Each structure stands twice: as C-alpha cells, then as structure tokens.
Amino acid sequence: MNRAIACAAACLMTIGAARAAEQESCRKVRLAEPGWNDLAFTTGVAQSLLHALGYETQSDLLGIDVIYLSLKNKDLDVFLGYWDPAMRTYFAPYEKDGSVETVTQNLTGAKYTFAVPAYVWDAGVKDFADLKTHADKFEKKMYGIEPGSNQLMLDAIADPSLGIADWEVVESSEQGMLAELARHIDMKAFFVFQGWAPHPMNTAYDIRYLTGGDTFYGPDFGAATVSTQVRRGYLAECPNVAQLLKNLTFDIDFENRGMGYLMNDGMAPEDAGRKAISEEPKRLDAWLAGVTTVDGAPGLAAVRKALGL
C-alpha cells in the first residue's frame, strides 16, 4: 500500500512539473490582426482576458499574407480573424500543409463584398456588372484597405466578364478608405469600396451592398463566418489558452458596439475590450468555463477581480 501511495505521489509530482513547464512556455501569447477595427476589438477583448489571467501578450499589426506566413513559421500563435470564404485564397496553402489550424467559429452572420453609397445604388449601380457602365463616374477606381487584404478586388478586376480590367484598386487602410467614403459622400460623388459587417460604417453611412459578387466573395453578399486560428501544435502545447480560444465567441451587436468605442471614442483596443466586458459581464461565464489563470487558479474569479466586476 505504501509503495502504491509513493508511486502515485511521484506520478503526480511528474505531471505537476510537466504542467508547470508547459504553462511557463505559454506565458506569452503572440497575436496579430490586419488593422481592421473588428479584429482590433476582438483581439483587444482576448488580450484583456489573457492579462487578467496572468498572461503576457504581444499584438502585431500585419498584412494577412504576413500573418499566415508568421503562423507557419511559428512567429505568431493566434489569429482571431479568418473570414470564410473571403480569405480562403490566403488560407488554402496553409490548410493544405497543416501549418495553421482552425480552432472554432467565433462569429456568424458577417458579410463582406463591394458596397456603394445609397445615392450611387439609386443611380443604377446595384450589381458588379453595373460598374463598367458608370466607369467614368467612378474614375475607374475602387477603394480597398491595407495592401495584402484586397485580393478579391484584384480578382474581380481581372475577371473579363466584368469589363473593368483597366480599373485601379486604391489601397491604404480601413481608416483611409472610410475617410475617402465620407469625402465622396459629402460631394455626392460615385464611390465603390470594400464593405463589411460587423462595422459601424453600416449605421454611420447610408450604404448598399452590390449583388453579383458570388464568384469572388460567396453568396448572400459575401455571407461569412469568422474563425479563430493558431499555429500548428499550439492547442496541444498550451491547453489552457486553447480552452479560452475555444470558448471565445462574439456576435454582430457586441462587435458593432465595441468597434464604436475604437472609432468614435478613440479608445485603445484593450480598453474597448474591458469596457465592452464590463457592460456585459455575464459573457465571462461561458468564455472562462474550464479556464484557469496562468498559475492554475480559477479563471472566472481572477478575471472578475482584475476587471473590477
């Protein structure tokens, strides 16, 4: 009996030591987002939770192509922003070689495709095919976001059926594109851009989404889901962070409000995340189910204390 107890104790000590080593290697969580406010906000939520659990985080602003290459090379751990189907082209080679793993869908009900101000839609631009008819009014330009994030626009231009091969994609940033949208609306000028939901643009401006983009963005105006992804092996290496990532899901209304804190109130992403959590603290029950602090203490109690809830 004593021998059995001694063996069990030794086994538990070994398991405990292994867990401590694993936790130590996982204490810093490296995330990235491409400069989109929806992903800045959700990444800010994740960081606020991780910090409250005792983790260190690093969040880098990178183009989508660089994010995937960094996950493959194990220079990043977590990406909360895989828009499907809009990013399939980017993700495909990494899915094929298994270097990037999808954890869970964190948002449903999203959409992503070409949009125009309502007065342009009223003037007859209601479908991708209508763009060529009004090419001169658009100055043969369409407005995208960060370089590396506009491949679907480039694919549309390259499609001979649309007749817009001589158009230009103006790349800048989400903020730059929206500034141009506001400027064009003030002048009642024609403007076509890459629009999406969730995003406060849908309430700040009177805009319409174009039909005809199924080939590029998928059906139903680019109806999309957003998923969390990690580098290969991360879920097994860091099971506590993995559990948080599996639990961490959002909805359109929550993200619209949170993005408003960034865009309208000028808050930093993590501050916006903390504010959004403080307004709906019941979300923590599901997000932190089965999650501990970095040192193994109950996660929910620690986060509530850290956030003053």
UniProtKB/TrEMBL annotation:
Leader peptide range in chain numbering: 1-20
Transmembrane segment boundaries: none
Pfam families with a match to the protein in the record: OpuAC
Source organism: Shinella sumterensis
Entry protein name: Choline ABC transporter substrate-binding protein
CDD domains given in the database record: PBP2_ChoX (cd13640)
GO CC entries: ATP-binding cassette (ABC) transporter complex; periplasmic space
GO BP term (any one): choline transport
Chain ranges of the ABC-type glycine betaine transport system substrate-binding domain: 28-277
MF terms (GO), sorted A to Z: choline binding; transmembrane transporter activity
InterPro entries xref list: ABC_choline_sub-bd, ABC_Gly_betaine_transp_sub-bd
Keywords from the UniProt entry: Signal
